[in-house]
Design a protein that fits this description.
Length: about 800
């Protein structure tokens, strides 16, 4: 046998990680007092416990206190008590605490890693080299944000007490993603880990004690859905940050509707791993190992859909199978293990069920010839080929080591297939042609795109999704905004619209001629129902009539907005010019608009003229900002640059207020347009003629057809239709509290981003009712990772 033969025949021996320290920690702890509330360790009020066991053997690890609503009350009270002092403390003192947490975690790094692998089943190589170091980096990075708050977020303050709920797949890392930015922002937290993986959070609470975190700033409660729901519904909490399944995310969106709680949702995914024919196939295969078999595929951003260009499909699949045959399935505490057990028997059953169903639907499922350990919840890495786009394995999040493969012919088809999912979390693009990769990346509906790489994360780079993958970002500057609130100038409480009666007196002259239509796809069109809404002057006379828009009209308007490619694809400079032109044309008719305002609202001529002038000024402002509110470039501690691109949200529905009917409408529509969104606006129900008078201004201003659509009618009804419409990506509602709450609750179909005034208007004339706070809501931040080097 020569040396080469020996090398190939070489078997790996076992390389177990020592677990004595973790076992000693487990043996020494009283898990019946595992609730960390107000700096004390408490038993659950109901006296209940739940079991956590070891996925590699099924052996019981601990019986852990199971919190109920009374415990959540206590934790929220502790967080509220600690809040005033913590939020008022200097950025420097908060930075020191965050840094101390990071350093203390570093000192117990190995214990964290071993405990994580024991409790979750993930290979020690991953917990040791990825989860724990990234978690530590998160705390150290956010120490800096605590101190930079005034400099980088002027006019913002922490939202208050935050409720945080996390899943079991990255227990410590998700905890870090939640707690670090909250503490940096001056918030206090009540965090609930997942019931499968409570252990590292308990160790983390011990670290908080040692690192000098003031009592009550961090409260960690253990429990299941009941405790989670109690957090979500608690009136003492100002923000909910949730990571978990889309199913529970939707429950939470509904439960928090109308509560005024800030909400961020980091949900599931079905991410595409796109390999073009000019890719380096060997690198792509290694990427796939990371993309789908990392953490047994129990990763929200797992590259679970392999899209491969037809010409190289056979070659790539052959390489993937060869590589899969070498993946080592075994004990998570063996340093050579690539694939450990799934977290629990229920998860294993779920994955098996989905694979069986995928096969029933026509997929060919292949697994390497390997023997699984005799105990534990193991599943072999699985490759599904012949998968149709509708197959369950192409559509459902499996959350297991299962890769579904499809082929594409050209770039357009790759993008179409990649976006053929209700999720939008992440994607990988593999090509040696950086031009092609950067052409494809912006067209993918995903919050994170990795070029020639996968699963790269950093505390400085935002992470989060679109569509049913949720909203909000974690990490970096955009992640900090999730824990901060800007002071917006509040206006009066908005009362529900009353159905206007026919004006008692007719106007003199030409009222009938003034009947306005709807504005859809660049054309004035009659409402589908052929009904009109009567508009009264301030004196109760007939000012005119407008179309009574219906569900069908909103649908047509949304289709027109979606079909309009010219606006989102226009350059920012181009959009800026059109907005300037709109302002110019409105200014040409300023006197006419001012007269209309006076006629309808009874405003004095001066006040009316001021509102028109401010509307023009606001259009000017956003015209100027259209090419200035740009993304950033991050330089994470990796050989990569991360481009944090500002992308339009998509189709944005806008329900405008009655107060300042022209300025309010323009203050909302202009920032949305400036960032490249297309808009379906429902103007003030009471004063819609201000919006219908704009049709001609829009028509003269080179606005592409479909970029702005206006549907007049009953605000509450049309807001509901927009909320339920799955092709609307964002919805801004400034209407009465009930309409706002319903819009939030009814948005769960596609989890569109809803910005509601919660029944309050803004002081639209204030300078603070304009600028970055609006532009931020008009964009999604997409982080595109571009590695470099040989
Ligand atoms: P899950 O939604 O079942 O549970 C998540 C958490 O929510 C747990 O702590 C659970 O106890 C709690 N919970 C359950 N029902 C609740 C309710 N009604 N009210 C409040 N809380 C409730 O998810 P999971 O199975 O633990 O985790 C897997 C999911 O998490 C996957 O879908 C995965 O994609 C997602 N995930 C997303 C990200 C991301 O950043 N986008 C990261 C990790 C995991």
């Amino acid at each position: 046998m020569n040396i080469l033969d020996r090398y190939h025949a070489m078997e790996y021996g076992p390389a177990p990680e020592a677990r004595n320290e973790a076992d000693a920690w487990l043996a020494a702890r009283d898990f019946s007092k595992a609730l960390f509330i107000g700096g004390d360790w408490k038993a659950a009020a109901g006296g209940k416990t739940f079991e956590t066991s070891e996925p590699s053997s099924g052996k019981l690890l601990a019986k852990v206190s199971d919190a109920n609503a009374a415990d959540i009350d206590a934790a929220v009270a502790a967080a509220a008590k600690a809040l005033p002092k913590w939020s008022a403390s200097s950025g420097y003192s908060r930075a020191k605490v965050l840094y101390a947490i990071g350093r203390a975690m570093q000192r117990h790094q190995r214990l964290f890693a071993v405990l994580e692998s024991i409790d979750n089943g993930k290979p020690i190589r991953e917990s040791r080299d990825i989860d724990v170091p990234l978690a530590i980096r998160h705390f150290v990075h956010h120490a800096g944000w605590a101190q930079a708050l005034d400099r980088d977020f002027p006019g913002h303050k922490g939202v208050g007490v935050v409720g945080q709920i996390i899943p079991w797949n990255f227990p410590l890392l998700m905890l870090a993603w939640k707690i670090a930015p909250a503490l940096a922002a001056g918030c206090t937290v009540v965090l609930k880990p997942a019931e499968f993986t409570p252990l590292t959070a308990i160790l983390f609470a011990e670290i908080c004690e040692r690192a000098g975190v003031p009592k009550g700033v961090v409260n960690i409660v253990q429990g299941g859905p009941e405790a989670g729901a109690a957090i979500v519904n608690h009136p003492g909490i100002q923000k909910i940050a949730f990571t978990g399944s889309s199913e529970v995310g939707k429950i939470i969106r509904k439960a928090t509707a109308g509560s005024g709680k800030k909400l961020s949702l980091e949900l599931g995914g079905k991410s595409a791993f796109i390999v073009f024919e000019d890719a380096d196939l060997d690198s792509a295969v290694e990427g796939l190992v990371d993309g789908i078999w990392f953490n047994q595929g129990q990763v929200c951003c797992a590259g679970s859909r392999l899209l491969v260009q037809e010409g190289i499909a056979d070659a790539l699949i052959a390489k993937v199978k060869t590589r899969m045959s070498r993946l080592r399935v075994g004990s998570p505490l063996d340093k050579n293990t690539d694939i450990g057990p799934l977290v629990d028997a229920t998860q294993l059953d779920r994955v098996k069920g989905l694979v069986a169903e995928g096969a029933r639907q026509g997929a060919v499922c292949w697994q390497p010839d390997a023997t699984l350990p005799s105990s534990g919840y193991y599943h072999l890495p699985t490759l599904a080929t012949g998968v149709s786009p509708a197959n369950i394995l192409a559509q459902e999040e499996v959350f297991g080591p299962v890769l579904a493969t499809m082929t594409f012919r050209n770039t357009e088809e790759a993008i179409e297939l990649a976006n053929n999912t209700r999720y939008g979390l992440a994607a990988s693009v593999w090509s040696e042609n950086v031009n092609l990769a950067l052409h494809v990346a912006p067209q993918l509906k995903a919050g994170v795109v990795w070029v020639n790489g996968t699963n790269m994360f950093d505390a400085a780079c935002g992470f989060g999704g679109y569509r049913e993958s949720g909203f909000g970002r974690e990490g970096g500057r955009e992640g900090m905004f999730e824990y901060l609130s800007a002071k917006l100038p509040l206006g009066p409480v908005i009362k529900p619209a009353t159905v206007s009666a026919q004006p008692a007196e007719q106007s003199d002259g030409d009222a009938i001629d003034r009947t306005a239509k709807l504005f859809i796809g660049g054309k004035q069109v009659r409402p589908d129902g052929n009904y009109s809404l009567v508009v009264a002057t301030a004196k109760g006379k007939l000012a005119g009539e407008v179309g009574l828009g219906s569900r069908k009209d909103i649908r047509d308007a949304v289709s027109a907005a979606r079909a309009c490619k010219a606006w989102p694809e226009a350059t920012a400079y181009n959009r800026s010019q059109v907005l300037y032109y709109l302002a110019e044309n409105l200014s040409g008719r300023a006197a006419e608009f001012a007269a209309r305002l006076t006629e309808l609202t009874g405003a004095t001529p001066k006040a009316a003229r001021d509102e028109v002038d401010q509307s023009i000024e606001r259009l000017f402002l956003y015209a100027g900002l259209a090419d200035k509110f740009e993304g950033r470039v991050h330089q994470p501690p990796a050989r990569a640059v991360t481009l944090a691109l500002h992308e339009p949200v998509g189709v944005v529905g806008i329900v405008a207020p009655d107060a300042s009917p022209l300025l309010g409408l323009i203050s909302l529509v202009a920032p949305a347009l400036a960032m490249g969104n297309t808009v379906v606006a429902v103007p003030s129900e009471r004063y819609p003629l201000l919006a219908t008078d704009l049709y001609q201004v829009i028509e003269y201003s080179d606005v592409p057809a479909g970029a702005i659509n206006i549907v007049t009618g009953r605000t509450a009804e049309l807001a509901g239709v927009l909320a339920k419409h799955d092709d609307v990506d964002g919805l801004w509602v400034f209407s009465d509290a009930d309409t706002c709450a319903k819009a939030e609750a009814e948005s769960i179909g596609n989890l569109k981003r809803v910005w509601s005034g919660n029944g309050r208007g803004l002081d639209w004339a204030s300078d603070e009712a304009a600028g970055d706070a609006f532009l931020r809501r008009a964009i999604e931040v997409k982080n595109v990772w571009v590695p470099y080097g040989d």
